[in-house]
Protein 1
Amino acid sequence: HRPDATTPPPTEQEDTPPMTLRTERDVLAAVPDGCLIDGVWRPTATVFDVHDPATGEVLAQVADATPAEAAEALDAACRAQPGWAATPPRQRAELLRRAYDLLLARADDFALLITLEMGKPLAESQGEVRYAADFLLWFSEQAVRIGGEYRLAPDGGSRLVTTRQPVGPCLLITPWNFPLAMMTRKVGPALAAGCTALLKPAEETPLSCLLLAQVLIEAGLPPGVIGLLPTGKPAELVGPLLADARLRKLSFTGSTEVGRELAAASGKQLLRSSMELGGNAPFLVFEDADLDAAVAGALLAKLRNGGQSCVAANRFLVHETAAEEFVERLTEEMSAVRLARGTDPLARLGPVISEEQRDRIALLVSDAVDRGAKVHTGGAEPAGRGWFFPPTVLSGVPGDALMVQQEIFGPVAQVQRFTDEADAVRRANATGSGLVGYLYTRDIGRALRVADALECGMVGVNRGLVSNAAAPFGGVKDSGLGREGGFEGIDEYLSTKYLAVDLG
Ligand code: NAD
């Protein structure tokens, strides 16, 4: 990469640059160069640019791995697989625990890298680093708890013994929105289970993943157990890997559109796959809700990660008697949010990831307005460089507006009204997605009834945040297949073997 892309190195004539600029350069310089194959960082023939979304400028240049390099990394993973699977679980656990400690020891570096490549405010990046580290800790604890069963067959004639074995070499593909946490959520359980893995970060945000791979090596991971393949042409690199019979598992987090394509390609090979895809979360506020808590939860569920999260609240559905006050209070809070580069200590909201994303959000807003929605705050992108979109609140968005059916993936809140519980549930479920739903009520019976009725994998009850390394994360319907985190997370990387034992 090119660490001097953001700021020229200080010369003797110049004043000392501000602290943050020096730190940015240092952190970028610490990112390993190349792709990782068999424990060695190797330069590639070409590189691709990574941009700072707050300025649009080139931040770094990163190795562009080719299908030939991916095949070599898979060769190495296959060679390493038997040894890694046979490594005692306690050793695998200790290695993950060391990686957890190393990651936290460098939390500031990781947070700054995430902010630089992805744009979110530093405080949020610090939160992502802790969340990401939690997966390494959690799965270091799970590595020693992989077990089986010993049972009597129903007819008493034999013993049924089950064991769990690692599925084998895995391909882990992650999106740009949580560049570090989405990768530890996959690589943690893969390594704990005894699988080798090829890591393919998003082309917008490969830097924190490159540093993560370095930390895993420093923690003592043997050569070949992980490979890292940054690329600017993901389809070209991933296609041949999926067609290679030696690959045993694909774990993908990203858009539903790409997920469908990769699931189809995996189907051809009967490759095991996990798909963590897009969401379109409803956020229900009933007439008996604690409105202070609901507004605070709404801000968190909408503005965390700039709204660029699969679990972001996409549709606020509020009982007709509470809607006006909810819109008023949400507008007051959203209009006070400070929009700035994520390194600015006062930034509460950073830029969105790209010009294309910003234009997409602007289009969704103008589509809703054309159909009669009212803008309470925000609505149009500010002038100046960088890819910023302001916090925006809309009401009166009709059901056929694009933002009702699609993930907004930006800091735009749309508020609709409902009349009763049945109407709320019907509207909440009226999309193809099924990742998460949020509900606010003081009635425990209603909370459980509605949670049961929501077609999704996770429900936030009087809470705007569901993510936790110890909980199973995942969805139903178009939101995907499989679970990450929790006790379930490691299952995705294990296959069950059953032994029929005749005692004679
Ligand atoms: P994306 O689908 O464009 O890209 C995701 C990853 O797939 C990237 O690494 C990209 O390089 C790769 N990719 C893209 N096209 C490919 C192809 N043809 N073949 C192989 N690989 C390909 O998604 P994105 O824009 O990076 O991320 C945003 C999406 O991710 C949103 O829809 C969001 O909801 C979803 N997401 C889901 C979860 C979840 O756990 N359910 C978590 C975070 C993000």
Protein 2
Amino acid sequence: MTTLNGANGTSSSPALKVVIVGAGIGGLSAAIALRKEGHDVHIVEQSAFAHEAGAAIHLAPNANGVLRRLGIFAESFGANTMDKLVEYTFSGEQQRSLDLSESNKQWQHPWHLAHRIDLHNALKAAATNSIGNGSARLQTSSVVTGVDPASGTVTLKDGTHIQGDLIVGADGVHSITRKAVPGGNIRPFGAGKSAFRFLVPRKLAENDAVTQKFVQNDGELVIWYANDRRIVMYPTSNNTYLNFVCIHPDEETEEQSGENWDQAGDLNLLLKVYSNFDPAVLRLLSKAESGSIKIWKLLDMDIIPNLASERLALLGDAAHPFLPHQGQGAGVAIEDAAALAVVLPLGTRPDEVGERLKLYQDIRMERANRIQEHSRLAGRDRSEQVKIDMYGFTNFNFGHDEYDNA
Ligand code: FAD
């Protein structure tokens, strides 16, 4: 049994030396969970985190169940509980209105609508603050160029090597660690759709006689559907902002869509792509906060045959890039992170890591793939839609917290 010291040199417990590639939602969650076990965690992140990007993100009950256990309470950074769901046709006819306040009671944890930057900041603070006997080390502005699962070596662009008993590949949709698992030399592909994302200050919608009807209630998620495009709106940041995700066929915005999260989009193009929607909705769109419009291509990927190899485990988008139609990308990454910590308790010997990662793969593979498939179905055009519960309320027990019973 090894007796490595914790990151602060304060622990004498047997601990694994863990190197996490990527300090996104999944990587930071894994850092917190593995630190809580007492492992020695070093996170390597390419970004300097100088200009954070991102708009809102769903934290369904499955995500919140894990986050709460990690000490992260999304309501403390302005997340709204999703209480109501309203659907319209593109021309503004209301199709259904669901009060979720009763059905929410079936979940053990709330369904939150949060701002990604707030969530990211909370995770970063929790990962790098002292937990028990030491914090994780976060090394930013460091691009990882390769990993060796056999020796546990992570190589940086500047030629530095970092050695670990375990490498966690949490480097997102354009992962380079993915290539190091058998069958992982696959690339995400365009799903045929792009999305505009932006924020509208809620006050602007409230103060306009035409648009105020859309912001009568807190915690309301609204969708306007045409056959091949849709506009999704929900509140975030203590109801001070309305987050918009507008999804349409790729070819309509080919000149602007990119594969990066911070690709700037254009208001005129947005209004053109959705020009046949209800004029009141277009009026809402035109209130987009200056500079907040981003446009991104939705990416999908074939199922990867392995989530782990020797000392390397993949999690989150590196393992299974999610389409956004179920709001489960962050949630499944957070679940992955918790599962890793469950299979690698303090006292796990370095020579046991490979076997335990097989267990991790068994636990995560089927669930992640099923939720991913459900997200694909939920994103189909209206004319091709199969009869599913679009929000996973019945198909998946997002509220069931499997770790409660672990
Ligand atoms: P991510 O959260 O994407 O994190 C991956 C991390 O790995 C990033 O910090 C990245 O910089 C780092 N990384 C990548 N390659 C390397 C490398 N070679 N070396 C070192 N570090 C590397 N989802 C939404 O639903 N709404 C949003 O508004 C939204 N905004 C986003 C903004 C940004 C800047 C990013 C990175 C992601 C965003 N996402 C958003 C995606 C969402 O966070 C993920 O889909 C989901 O949370 C899964 O998390 P993940 O940790 O697997 O990946």
